[in-house]
């Protein structure tokens, strides 16, 4: 029988708390042992009803676990990543946009034996994109449409004086460019574009449009891939989570599915 892998989670917000609850409910081959939180008192309260309460530790302490899931603001991505990678752990980032300017971490991981596993997150179809990218790919695009409040606070909007909450009637294109620049300008909004770029043809060639759309209630992402082997067109419409409207509810579920795939005997999808 495969051994149980222990899990540590950085951040107990829209992603981390849901993932923690799901792991505590019981998943074969996985055991939640540690969490890191900004607000310890709140974390204690959130963990109060858990069957097996994980330890509340600092970021370095998380790396005692076999798997370190980062579910925190992008600002602390590097700290979490470095601690996990230095100890040779399996690092599963949510804030994968923050990985794009830090690809040296992949080289570090190669040296320590760590693995970096980027989950599909709020997106879909990365199995097909990866397959297509084993062959010739002409183009990869993603169009993201979010209710305006799902984009509030993005540095790009602030730098360009764009008030998305003033978008009331017509959907408005607020960004068009490559995935690398989108990840810098919208670190809490389009990690999906970073995951797509890493799965396919890289952050410079992966193009993204970001729309503030007052007519959608869901965070909607459409991927188009033109490849020699196939043409892909896929859309996901995510229900925003109550805790954080920028984050689709499917994200912690996707990470849970990803973690299950690390231990399950039967694994479906590449
Ligand atoms: N890959 C993907 O498809 C997606 C990625 N994301 C990204 O995942 C990350 C987490 O998203 P959410 O859970 O929605 O965010 P959130 O804001 O709901 O939760 C983040 C949590 O981290 C905690 N935190 C802040 N500083 C901390 C520290 N120093 N140590 C430990 N915890 C700390 C906060 O208190 C909060 O509870 C964000 O960067 C977000 O942009 C979000 C949605 C989809
Ligand atoms: O949940 C979503 O729709 C996507 C998201 O926030 C992200 O990629 O960062």
UniProtKB/TrEMBL annotation:
<keyword id="KW-0520">NAD</keyword>
<protein>
    <recommendedName>
        <fullName>L-aspartate dehydrogenase</fullName>
        <ecNumber>1.4.1.21</ecNumber>
    </recommendedName>
</protein>
<keyword id="KW-0560">Oxidoreductase</keyword>
<dbReference type="InterPro" id="IPR011182">
    <property type="entry name" value="L-Asp_DH"/>
</dbReference>
<keyword id="KW-0521">NADP</keyword>
<feature type="binding site">
    <location>
        <position position="122"/>
    </location>
    <ligand>
        <name>NAD(+)</name>
    </ligand>
</feature>
<feature type="active site">
    <location>
        <position position="221"/>
    </location>
</feature>
<dbReference type="Pfam" id="PF03447">
    <property type="entry name" value="NAD_binding_3"/>
</dbReference>
<dbReference type="GO" id="GO:0016639">
    <property type="term" value="F:oxidoreductase activity, acting on the CH-NH2 group of donors, NAD or NADP as acceptor"/>
</dbReference>
<dbReference type="InterPro" id="IPR002811">
    <property type="entry name" value="Asp_DH"/>
</dbReference>
<feature type="domain" description="Aspartate dehydrogenase">
    <location>
        <begin position="169"/>
        <end position="255"/>
    </location>
</feature>
<comment type="pathway">
    <text>Cofactor biosynthesis; NAD(+) biosynthesis; iminoaspartate from L-aspartate (dehydrogenase route): step 1/1.</text>
</comment>
<comment type="similarity">
    <text>Belongs to the L-aspartate dehydrogenase family.</text>
</comment>
<dbReference type="GO" id="GO:0050661">
    <property type="term" value="F:NADP binding"/>
</dbReference>
<keyword id="KW-0662">Pyridine nucleotide biosynthesis</keyword>
<dbReference type="InterPro" id="IPR036291">
    <property type="entry name" value="NAD(P)-bd_dom_sf"/>
</dbReference>
<dbReference type="InterPro" id="IPR005106">
    <property type="entry name" value="Asp/hSer_DH_NAD-bd"/>
</dbReference>
<dbReference type="GO" id="GO:0033735">
    <property type="term" value="F:aspartate dehydrogenase [NAD(P)+] activity"/>
</dbReference>
<dbReference type="GO" id="GO:0051287">
    <property type="term" value="F:NAD binding"/>
</dbReference>
<dbReference type="InterPro" id="IPR020626">
    <property type="entry name" value="Asp_DH_prok"/>
</dbReference>
<comment type="function">
    <text>Specifically catalyzes the NAD or NADP-dependent dehydrogenation of L-aspartate to iminoaspartate.</text>
</comment>
<feature type="domain" description="Aspartate/homoserine dehydrogenase NAD-binding">
    <location>
        <begin position="11"/>
        <end position="119"/>
    </location>
</feature>
<feature type="binding site">
    <location>
        <position position="191"/>
    </location>
    <ligand>
        <name>NAD(+)</name>
    </ligand>
</feature>
<dbReference type="GO" id="GO:0009435">
    <property type="term" value="P:NAD+ biosynthetic process"/>
</dbReference>
<dbReference type="Pfam" id="PF01958">
    <property type="entry name" value="Asp_DH_C"/>
</dbReference>
């Amino acid at each position: 029988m495969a051994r149980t892998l222990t899990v540590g989670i950085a951040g107990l917000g829209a992603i981390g708390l849901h993932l923690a609850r799901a792991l505590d409910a019981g998943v074969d081959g996985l055991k939640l042992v540690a969490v890191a939180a900004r607000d310890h008192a709140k974390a204690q309260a959130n963990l109060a009803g858990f069957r097996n309460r994980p330890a509340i530790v600092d970021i370095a302490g998380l790396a005692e676990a076999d798997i370190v899931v980062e579910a925190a603001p992008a600002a602390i991505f590097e700290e979490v990543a470095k601690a996990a990678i230095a100890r040779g752990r399996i690092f599963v980032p949510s804030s994968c946009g923050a990985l794009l300017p830090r690809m040296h971490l992949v080289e570090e991981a190669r040296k320590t034996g760590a693995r970096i596993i980027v989950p599909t997150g709020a997106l879909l179809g990365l199995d097909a994109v990866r397959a297509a990218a084993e062959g010739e790919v002409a183009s990869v695009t993603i169009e993201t449409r979010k209710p305006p409040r799902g984009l509030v606070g993005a540095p790009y909007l602030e730098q360009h004086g764009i008030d998305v909450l003033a978008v009331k009637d017509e959907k408005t294109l607020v960004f068009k460019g490559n995935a690398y620049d989108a990840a810098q300008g919208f670190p809490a909004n389009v990690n999906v574009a970073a995951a797509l770029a890493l799965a396919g043809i890289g952050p410079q060639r992966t193009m993204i449009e970001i729309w503030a759309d007052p007519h959608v209630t869901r965070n909607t992402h459409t991927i188009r891939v033109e490849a020699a082997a196939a043409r892909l067109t896929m859309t996901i419409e995510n229900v925003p989570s109550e805790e954080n409207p920028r984050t689709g509810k499917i994200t912690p579920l996707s990470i849970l599915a990803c973690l299950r795939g690390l231990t399950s005997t039967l694994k479906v999808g590449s």
